[in-house]
Amino acid sequence: MNKNFFEKLNNWVLRFVLRRKYKRTGSCNNCGACCSHIYVRHLKGVIKEEKEFEKLKLLHSFYAGLNIIGSDEIGLIFECSHLDKETKLCKIHKYRPGICRRYPQEEIFQMGGCLSADCGYKLEPIVEFKEVLNKVAKKSGLIR
Ligand code: SF4
Ligand code: SF4
C-alpha cells in the first residue's frame, strides 16, 4: 500500500469519523507562541472575565498554570507559567496536558483565533475549495 492510500485513509477518518474539516500538517518549531498568547474557551465561549476564570482553575490543573497577561476583543489573554521564556520550551513537556499535545486543532478558528505566523503547523482544509465548488455547481445544475 502506498503513501497516497494512507493519506486518503487518514483524510477519510478525519472527515467521516472525527468530523473534522481541517487536517494538521507541519511540525512544531518551538517558537513558544501558543504558550504565551492563549485564549481559554469553556462552555459559554471564550473566557472574558477574571471571576469566570477563577472557577475554571478548580476544574483542571492546566488552568491553574495560566496567568492573565491582558485582554482584547476576543477575551482574556493568558501565558503559561510552564513555558521557559529563555529556551521557549515547555518545562513539563513529558507531562504536558492533553490539550497541549493535540494543539493546534481547528477549534481555534471557532474562537476567532488563528495560528501564530511563526507556527510550524498548518491547518489545511481536508476537502479542497475547488472540490466543494464543483459539488455545489453540479447540485445546482451549472455543470454536469
Ligand atoms: S503546559 Fe507546556 S505546552 Fe502546555 S501551554 Fe504550558 S508551556 Fe505550553
Ligand atoms: S505556535 Fe506552533 S510552532 Fe510555536 S510552539 Fe506552538 S505549536 Fe510549536
Task: State the helical fraction.
Answer: 25-40%
Alpha-beta classification: alpha+beta
One letter per element, helices H and strands E, the order comes to HEHEEHHEEEEHHEH
Number of domains: 1
Distance between the termini: 33 Å
Supply the number of helical segments.
7
Across the major sheet, the strand order is: 1-8
Mean pLDDT, to the nearest integer, reads 87
Compute the CA-based radius of gyration.
Answer: 19 Å
Q: Biggest sheet: strands, sense, closure?
A: 2 strands, antiparallel
* Ligand types: iron/sulfur cluster
* Uncertain runs: none
Annotation, overall tally of beta strands: 8
Shape: globular
Strand content: 15-25%
Layout of helices and strands, plus pairs?
Blueprint: H1 3-17, E1 22-26, H2 33-36, E2 41-42, E3 45-46, H3 50-57, H4 61-64, E4 66-71, E5 76-80, E6 83-84, E7 89-90, H5 98-102, H6 107-110, E8 121-125, H7 129-139
Antiparallel strand pairs: 1-8, 2-3, 4-5, 6-7
This protein binds iron/sulfur cluster (2 copies).
